[in-house]
Design goal:
Layout lengths: L3 E6 L3 E7 L5 E8 L6 H23 L6 E5 L2 E3 L4 E5 L4 E4 L1 H8 L5 E5 H12 L7 E6 L7 E4 L2 E3 L30 H4 L1 H12 L6 H9 L3 H25 L3 E5 L7 H14 L7 E4 L6 H23 L1
Parallel strand pairs: 1-4, 4-8, 9-12, 12-13
Antiparallel strand pairs: 1-2, 2-3, 5-6, 6-7, 9-10, 10-11
């Protein structure tokens, strides 16, 4: 069976799969990223994981993978195949595409950004399927976005399109790692809610999931923390939808696991803020934490199709 190798590299763990042409995950595996061992060790772990997937596919299907795709966090230059920078992995200017291709016997390799790869998967086979314009926003340790247009993800002129986590929604607010203050992700990410609820509850290990449960039980402290985050999120999202006019707004990440505890007040807050804009459908992501890996597989299949077309043209 024809298949590609897909890898989604996170700060803590890596997800990998063999992916069929129709998007079916034929085989899945996970490993720790091991970032505590340093960036060179992380790169070696990625290469070894990909090589193991390559060998598994060859043994199981009697044929080698036709391409590979890898999604990584941070700044990425897909055309150059370069993982430029990732704060949570500690690397700079890693020629990851070339390194992977060399380890995989010259296999074509596509390199992508983790959130944009997740958005590609949600757009093609997930919550955005059949939607011409959508915005995918995962709410995790940080907040990012992927702009879906006609089946593709817009990367922007410099690869930074969709970084709505760094829209300033509370000028003078909490310091952000980007150098600004009051960025959306310092107030409405899962990490931000965890910090706020730990302080409000007096429990240093309390997290966003605990806050959501406390909201559901009617704890007024949790309700305040949650509503502050929802209000900040709505302000950032309305700025984004004013600029982009998406038909669907797909919310994913850890915070979205709260379900209607998040979506009911968020929809109300967005609708209360729009004036001339037409509010998009606000829906939960459909693919969970497999979106990035599946998106990496789709990038690989796209690359294989382009390679095959160029060989036919030649």
């Amino acid at each position: 069976m024809e298949h590609v190798i897909a890898l989604d590299v996170g700060g803590t763990g890596m997800k990998a799969a063999l992916v069929a042409a129709d998007g079916t995950l034929l085989y899945e595996a996970r490993r720790p990223t091991g970032r505590e061992r340093g960036p060179e060790a992380v790169v070696e772990s990625i290469l070894a994981f990909a090589a193991d997937l390559y060998a598994h596919g060859l043994e199981r299907y009697g044929a080698a993978a036709v391409a590979a795709g890898v999604a990584v966090p941070g700044l990425v230059e897909p055309d150059e195949g370069m993982a430029v920078y990732a704060a949570n992995l500690g690397w700079r200017d890693v020629p990851l595409r070339a390194l992977l291709s060399e380890r995989l016997d010259g296999l074509p390799v596509a390199l992508g950004h983790d959130v944009r790869s997740g958005g590609l998967a949600e757009g093609r086979v997930g919550a955005g399927r059949g939607t011409d314009r959508f915005l995918f926003v995962p709410l995790g340790t940080g907040i990012a976005g992927a702009i879906g247009i006609a089946g593709t993800i817009e990367a922007g002129a410099h690869g930074y399109a969709g970084e709505i986590g760094h829209i300033v929604v509370r000028p003078g607010g909490p310091a952000c790692g980007c150098g600004q203050r009051g960025c959306l992700e310092t107030l409405a990410s899962a990490a931000a809610v965890s910090r706020a609820w730990a302080a409000a509850s007096g429990d240093p290990v309390a997290d966003a999931a605990d806050c959501a449960k406390a909201v559901e039980s009617g704890d007024p402290r949790a309700v305040r923390v949650w509503q502050d985050a929802v209000d900040a999120l709505a302000d950032g999202l309305v700025t984004a939808l004013t600029l982009l006019d998406p038909g669907t707004l797909i919310i994913g990440g850890g915070l979205a696991e709260a379900g209607e505890t998040l979506f009911t007040p968020l929809r109300a807050a967005v609708e209360a803020r729009v004036t001339f804009q037409r509010p998009p459908a606000v829906v939960p992501a459909a693919l969970g934490d497999t979106a990035g890996c599946l998106g990496a597989g789709l990038l690989a299949w796209d690359l294989f199709a382009r390679t095959a077309d160029s060989e036919v043209s030649a």
